[in-house]
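Journal club side-thread
Mid-discussion, someone asked how the predicted structure for our own chain would compare to the paper's figures. Pasting it here so we can look after the session.
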Amino acid sequence: MLACCLTLGASAKGQFTIMKASAKPASIDSNVTSPVEVGVKFRADSNGYITGLRFYKASTNVGTHVGHLWTRAGVLLGSATFTSETKSGWQQVNFSTPIAVSANTTYVASYFAPAGHYSENINVFSRTGIDSPPLHALANGVDGPNGVYLYSSSGGFPTSSYYSTNYWVDVVYTPQTVVANPQLTVSANSLSFGSVTVNTSTTKSVTLTSSGTSAVKVNSASISGAGFSIVGGSFPVTLNPNQSITLLVQFKPTTTGAVTGQLTIKSNSTTGGTAVVSLSGTGAAATKPQLTVSTTALSFGSVAVDSSATQAVALTSSGTSAVTVNSVSISGAGFTLVAGTFPVTLNPGQSMTLQLQFKPTTTGAVAGQLTISSNSTTGGTAVVSLSGTGTTAGKPQLTVSATTLSFGSVAVGSSATQSVTLTSSGTSSLTVNSASVSGTGFAILGGSFPLTLTPSQTTTLQVQFKPTTSGAATGQLTISSNSSSGSTTAVALNGSGTSVAHSVNLSWDAPTSTGSPIMGYNIYRSTGSSSFQLVNSSTVAQTTYVDDTVVSGSTYNYVAKSIDSNGAESTPSNQIAVTIP
């Protein structure tokens, strides 16, 4: 059921309101004297326009009233100043330009009462809200609380709520009228394919978009001109508003010379039943594919047995047409091609790189050959000679600069950093596979693994101790490698967290003018953009409070509210912010 004295609005000449002009508040004057912005959350069943705002006025509700329309997030969509007001009753102002609203979307309508004395009905939105189709003042819980206000000397976006109160704010709404109007928009009125080699093809696209307010039917698409064709596509096709399809048009000339054509699209578009796209292109004589290889010989030098070295060969299409590399083969013990899939086509100027690996399994000199087959007019086969020598493998070895790291005493929430140096102290490259750390508060800063160090090369690991609790802590840095002296190396870690206690002392002045005796206070706290939460577990009798639950490095916001003999809280006090060191 609706609360007392509410009457649903009705349409008049296509306009709707939430409440009728004959509706009256249960409490015409709230007797609140503070300047305040009061409002209501509402939705419409269909797209339309808010042409104006209304509010019910008490004779004591004086001053200049300004109406506002907001999004749910507080973005101001429009405002207007009420003029030629009567002493009391319903007042209305119209926006200079109607404001578009979307169906089933929450908006907030409000007005600023500089002298207070707004009208009210309490508990209207607690369960059912006000349903006056196509408008709906939302019940609590549909989109947060309803019946919103903001105490302010200049007004603003209202977000607070008190007892689901209807503040007698209303909107004037006109539904949007949609007239069927199929329209087709074509993305281009001409396509130029440029020069295309005879008996090769190129493709361009044309997008057809339904840009009207109702579905458009594309009946057919036809093409004229030698060498032009539509690739795929089936007609007729129906496109709903804002829906699109793409037509692919191909040009494949069979002779040299300029060619023109036309793409013709027929539809039921109200902007014209026939759309024409002009087509042009030129057939060009076939050119010559050529392949250039960056080198004729690769020398890998000396490589330890069972280790590997890699070198690159670049293949470039240096002719006037695309070259096809049909295959690549390799011979010689220990030589391999790393990846690569063939055949592959390279357009003029395009290159690709071949990675060749030499991994000897025995000592001694080795020779081989890379053979490249293509359709190059300079020769269908290109050869690159390969050479390398297998040598006796050296021993990788890892040396760590410390076996223990002691961080001493570190305050909880702060950090200390120490370093460990890893050295490749063997006769061949060392691979550090991983580095991990255990123990609460210990961490490795940066570092990327696996990592290869050549003989005598070093790298430094940064280890951090950042305790979260007080007391002694131990851990371990574990380094995994291919060192011949042991695949796992451990560094012991230790440190001690020390704690620092913080508290916030709050004090405030008792209210000097209240309607009921003050029985105590509640303290509320928030961090960042979070909402305020009650801090005290029982009513605070004094005008001081100590909050000893704060954490170092955090910033807290506080407000106090007094509690009267009826158990009702006051509005919040001024807000203070405290940063804990």
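Post-session note: Residues 184-284 form a domain with the Immunoglobulin-like fold (CATH 2.60.40.10).
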